[in-house]
Records
---
Amino acid sequence: MHRPADLPRWVYLPAVAGTIFVVLPLVAIAIKVDWLNFWSLVTSPDSRTALLLSLKTASASTALCVVLGVPMALVLARSRLQAVRLLRPLILLPLVLPPVVGGIALLYAFGRLGLIGQYLEVAGISVAFSTTAVVLAQTFVSLPFLVISLEGAARTAGSDYEVVAATLGARPSGVWWRVTLPLLFPGMVAGAVLAFARSMGEFGATLTFAGSRQGVTRTLPLEIYLQRVNDPDAAVALSILLVAVAALVVLGLGARRLAGTEAR
Amino acid sequence: MRRIGVLAGLVSTMLVGGLIACSSNQSPQGNRIVVFAAASLKPAFTEIGEQFKTDNPGIAVEFSFAGSSDLATQLTQGATADVFASADTTQMSTVAKAGLLDTNPTNFASNTLIIVTSVGNPKHIGSFADLTNPGLSVVICQQKVPCGSATRRIEDSTGVRLNPVSEELSVTDVLNKVTTGQADAGLVYVTDALNAGTRVTPIRFPEAAGAVNVYPIAVLKKAAHPALAEKFVAMVTSEAGQKILDRSGFGKP
């Protein structure tokens, strides 16, 4: 076994401090949970409706992220066009944008009076206050997560196999389906998992863009925000549920896949 | 290398120390009173605060404006302030029940609901019942927040059941949905409609009188300057203070 070089000892101090800083709030909320009534709190009709809506919308936006994000990531990783390189920071902007700002921006694009929204409205398509609006908001904030993680994987993997496949006579589409995608499958899963987790937690953009109506647009984070006023116990229980879902997703799939793609 | 390590350690110590110093600055000290006030009070209280500073030279007033329920939660979780002004009696009694009040709450203002529509009222809404017109997208506050409970009281007293496209978590969210044109109409407080100015068209309706929100104010037990805090409360209830509140759209308590 090769022993990695020793880190200087002082590095452990901020590392431990950082770890405590991240873990402590989660421990605090776990302590606060009324575990005796946990089940009844999270299975109340309001909570169930919100959780179900969150799972549905997060799945839909993850699918949308994969359909749009995989080609985006590959173009970013492989294209040598100057324009693509200039576009890259713009595409990744939602990553650092406050979600509320994202929501406002979506409003002015797809809202009833928005840039595109006004024409959609005329065509009889109204996304305002619909579940579609929630999916749009979630996709907007999650897409860069998938793109950035998959782009990294695609760069590390390189395009040697594709070149070989092409020299053997495979058409570009054939290479895409039979070489590129299978090779990048772990990276895709990791990106999709990240996008799903981000969508589950989406709050600001949803609230600003989609509104809050039970069973239609009120996702789990919105329900938590609402419950916290009158029923803090339920809010805490739901928060833990969201933490659990996120942890399951990240631990069960994400972390391993991410590590796998990094190592290649 | 060793020196860099020591340096990094120093920097992180300074960072943490800085954080601690910042947080200790938050507690009331010196000649400063801290006022926790409902978000809807922002324009009026900012003006009253300026007046208070001119009347009491050398005294600073620091405001924390947020939803009353958020402020009540912060107070019951140990935040320190001199004065609490709530947008409804429910949140004030939450704080009172926690034994955090120094004086009995005084009601100093009231607020009523009003319909706001897109500019020019293109959907011709004339009454509360009109909000149920087909093809109209109406937003209201969720029942659990104060403006939502007022809406529900009006629904109950009139027997008119609204079918909103969204039940927002705060009154500003309702207003935002109307000013951006997402919704045709919404129910907000008179003061919010006044704040929005020409970006909405306000429509008064008589049934609003059936759901008036009363604003109470009180000095907190943990006040660093109880005398100054009482002076501020006196100013809010004084004629000058009432005039400012009236200009912001508030009614008499």
---
Amino acid sequence: MALSEGLSGPALAGVFRDEWGRIVAGLIHQFGDWDLAEDCAQEAFTLALQRWPVEGTPARPGAWLFTVARNRAIDRLRRSAKYQEKLKAVAATTMTETAEDGAGEEVVGSGGPDERLRLIFTCCHPALAMESRVALTLRTLAGLSTAEIARAFLVPEATMAKRLVRAKHKIQSAGIPYRVPPAGALGQRAAGVLAVLYLLFNEGYSASAGPDLVRRDLCDQAVRLTTVLVGLMPELPEAKGLLALMVFHGSRQAARVDGEGDLVRLEDQDRSLWDRAAVEEADRYLAEALQQGEVGPYQLQAAIASCHASAPTAEATDWQSIAWLYQQLADLTGSPVVELNRAVAVAMTDGPEEGLALVDGLTRTGALDGYYLLPAARADLLRRLRRSCEAAAAYREALALVRTEPERRFLAARLAEVDPPAR
Amino acid sequence: MQYLLVHAVDEELAAAMSGDGTAQASGPSGGAAAPALAAWLDETVSRGVNLHGSRLCPISDATTVKVRRGELVVTDGPFAETKEQVADYDLLECSDLEEAVEWASRHPTAQIGAIEVRPLYGDEPPQGLPEPAPGRRRYLMLVCTDPDVERDEPGPITPVEPWVEEMGGRGVRRFGSRLDEPVRARTVRVRDGEALVTDGPFAETKEQIAGFDILDCADLDEAIEVAGKHPMARHGLLEVRPFWPFQKD
């Protein structure tokens, strides 16, 4: 059974969420052994599950858990002769910490060093495969079980277990350092961490129409981890920008899928269902990020989401600002997908003709070949220009490329509008 | 003349043959082939033929480094996705290519995989290679060509000498060499007791090994930094593979 599922009481579940990553990160730092850290953290939580309901929750749950987990780890090392030397090294660092802090148990939960930043950067190291980075982050920082991660990514549990073992093996044997990268490499590596967190969020977000709650929970995990990162790296405006972006997306959750599980496009959404409190929260994060005066792709995307969030209706949206923001984003990233979005925004301000010219230009570059949203956007513009025949052809082209069921249904409905089936 | 023997095996096949089914135990030095390997090493070392060599960590521990448009690009995995992958290497001192091929045909890897024999380019003096200093790890860096990139960025390749000098001075680069053209490589396979020698490298991929360096680094981040500064990072690929850890117990 997954431990995170077993902790049914809300208090314990909260402690698990808040403390798991800290404890694992601290144990890896002390013992340099990922499996040992996970096992001992697991044992500490299991013990808490038995003891706390009877004896009451300790005053500092994090410190209690870390002490139990660390003692378990030392116990295990004692039993293994092979690790005698390692134990001596650990004892030496513990002694120093005790001397420095005044008490050995003060390390976690009392303003002691938070090792999670090391853990985040190690899990998201570029020498690991992207899928391993995501899995390792969920396992060690969020405390998801291998089975839960496997379910969330729709792969067999054995495959996920193997992926995690390989990643941990590579960290050890290839010598991936357990540390926050030095200043020179920090920018690029932090961007890599944000990419992992955003991928995690999108994995959950795109699955929001699906039946499995575990996949949807990925959004919450991504928001939680990004919040942790913002707390640990307040000097990084892009982390706040990403957090704002995630919260903006999340604010529309209730409105973006209808009763049948079909996706509702932004312009057709019932805006009264948007979570106003979440929008305000996201706007706050974005404002804080922008104040730092160092714009990046996530802040620009969040600013675009903010424009949508503040519009009372689709027609009243500030498309001009959105088109300008997409231009900035395109200049920064050179991404053809961004260009496509800019074309759609331009169509809203300058008319579908202008938008179509940009889409056709993009089609000629071939950069988005095989991407269903390109013919889908083209089809939509042609439909608005009442060029039904061409629109129908473009919808068919998009239908041939689309892979998810709700999107397929949406395109099929639009196709039926411009090209009604013969009776 | 010095020759590099690149031992390439299918890791899964090697793991299955070694009997314990783990990828970690793959390679000719594990399992049933161990006595044969020991005999080969005894003979080549005692005759002064074998200058240096090592088993490498499996490809799941490989990292590939390149620089494109000024950006360092780091990816998980080897320089090319091939069935057979570099697992070990040996550096031999032989009178000619035929002698090197002869030694290769007697190596146990030849029976389950392939051994690519490549003359070292130029004549660097052989060097002793002591164990890495405490706190340092040893990596083999394979310097590989990528013809697609060379078409992209015509113009001369920056000379490698300043890199060699810098990394030697830092104590990072312990040894290395360019290799003679892939067309002058021989690949040896032994099947049913018969040695099959073909011209060219073991893998028919567009990317090919052009040289190698042995690096002693504090960690993978340093190895990535060092690889990223190599001139071939901009024209090809660099695969960084940790040495198989030396077991003290």
